[in-house]
Amino acid sequence: MDDIKTLLKVLVIAAVYLGVAPLLGFYLKGKDLARRVTLGLLAWLLVRPPSNFTLMLYSIKDYRGHCRGFEFNFLEALAMSLAFAALFEKRRDFRWLPPGLWAWLLWVGVSLLSVMGAINPIYALMPAFKFATMAFIFVGVFAALHDQRDVLALMRGFAIALILQLVVCLWARYGRGEFQVKGWFEHQNPMAMWSYMLAFPILGLALSKDTSPRDVVLSFTAFGAAGLVDVLAVSRASLAAFVVGSVLVMLGAYVNGLTVRRVALGVLGAVCGALVLAKAANTFKSRMGGDDLQKNDLRYALNQQSAAMLRDHPLVGIGWNNFGLANSRPLGLQYSRILERWDQNRGSTIYAKNYVNNPLTESFYWLALAETGALGFAAILLFEVLTLWHGLRSTAYFWKSPLGLLLYGVTVALMVSYFHLQVERILVQTKNLTTWIIFCAIVARAEWWRRQAKARRKLGLAGR
User: Fold this and answer.
1) Exposure winner among 46, 281, 336, 462, fewest CB in 10 A?
2) CA geometry: angle at 161 spanning 363 and 389, to 5°?
3) Residue 240 contacts by C-beta under 8 Å, 6 or more apart in sequence?
């Protein structure tokens, strides 16, 4: 029976990637409206439950690693259709390797070196496949962004997704009585981070002088929805990130130039935020208290496991996606004992059966250091720095254009997310990962436009 299910999955995957993607690309060729609808759909679908757009081969449901099989994401096929459309149109601005993508693929390649010391090499191939195929999203979105109207189509899709997510969360809280709602996400923390990532460029769009009144209403409503989703998730770190990022975007808008719209939206946002926080104060207080000493924090013990793995395997780590094996009994007895000693020091009785499936470190960076060593860690930092550089340069170039504040919001989202990764590994989740890559593709396209404009100016000067 399992073999039949696997065969059916393979047939569906092949039909979507090899059939639907190129056929849809052929249909989209030269159709601007259809391309923008597809971009908006790509953004909107991210709010749906993951089972709606993913299929998993060789699934290991009982594993606590960050990747549990070879995941096929049909959003990648949708992005492939956008790339096929650009190829069929023979667009001169199509690139197989957009700015920054080389650094992403370098990270995947360097991290694959960890296979050599992995407890289970197949587990290490799973994230390699997942992250490598994200290149389809990168290339497809980059190819589909012909001008600022295409970027706007993406943001509209994200805005509608945020509003829909708020409706789902409100029903979960007040209809089903849930305390920490997670909506259509696997967990409330990825949902909260996804919401604030989208909030910042959408706020930038709402504050732009060139945004139409209709899009201002949609964008500001979506921004408010993102804030409410963070409150309903009761995620303290994400709510703090939302506040910090929002303040940065507002300050950037005021530096860009004071307008009645910006002042009014700033005041309205501050008043609404204060009212919501006052209403939610008791909810957050219920999560406060307890012993906050670092030595009594489980995350501290898990980071100690990571540090020990890094000391023993400094260059390439213990194997990508192998942390859950290396820190648990029976294969990871050496590192499991670090957690066991931590529990014992807190007065717990140690039973071996309780340590066969230990949790992962929450920190993305500690996880990268443990699993892929110093080389993998350096490679992902390189990609992060490069995307921030592209974001800053394109923001500066388009600062006074309709794209200026939106690109600034994307850059703020990347910056806040990279900082947040110190304590959360949320960007490895499919929805957050895909949103991350879409943002990287946006700043890559903006960087491409900047380079092309610079080249045209040089040619113009040479012609004189």
Assistant:
1) 462
2) 50
3) none
Q: Is the separation of the CB atoms in 383 and 104 below 8 Å? A: yes
Residue 130: name the closest of 225, 55, 205, 229 by CA.
55
Burial of 293 per CB tally in 10 Å (0-12, 13-18, 19+): exposed
Distance CA 349, CA 43 (A): 48
Cα Rg for the chain, rounded, in angstroms?
23
User: Quick check: helix, strand or coil at residue 106?
Assistant: helix
Question: Rounded to two decimals, what is the model's pTM?
Answer: 0.93
**Total Cβ atoms within 10 A of residue 378:** 13
Q: Which helix (H) or strand (E) holds 262?
A: helix 260-285
71 strand-pairing partners? 56
* 146 alpha-carbon distance from chain centroid: 23
- The DSSP secondary structure of 222-252, one letter per residue, reads HHHHHHHHHHHHT-HHHHHHHHHHHHHHHHH
d(CA 385, CA 285): 36
Mean pLDDT computed over 80-89 = 96
Cβ pair 79, 135 in contact under 8 A: no
Question: What mean pLDDT do residues 420-448 have?
Answer: 94
Lookup result for tokens 């406060």 = 288
Whether the per-residue pLDDT at 284 is higher than 60: the answer is: no
pLDDT in tens, 350-407: 888 889 999 999 999 999 999 999 999 999 999 999 999 999 999 999 999 989 999 9
One DSSP character per residue, 52-84 reads GTEEEES--TT--SS--SEEEEHHHHHHHHHHH
My answer on whether omega of the bond before 330 falls inside 30° of 0, hence cis, is yes
Residues with Cβ within 8 Å of residue 427, at least 6 apart in sequence? 193, 364, 417, 421, 433, 436
Predicted pLDDT at 277: 56
Measured distance CA(72)–CA(435) in Å, rounded:
16
Q: Return left, alpha or beta for 134; rule: phi > 0 is left, psi -120 to 50 is alpha, else beta.
A: alpha
452 - beta bridge partners?
A: none
Q: What is the pLDDT of residue 308?
A: 95
The dihedral formed by the CA atoms of 416, 417, 422 and 425, expressed in degrees to the nearest 10: 160
* Contact (CB, 8 A) for 373 and 323: no
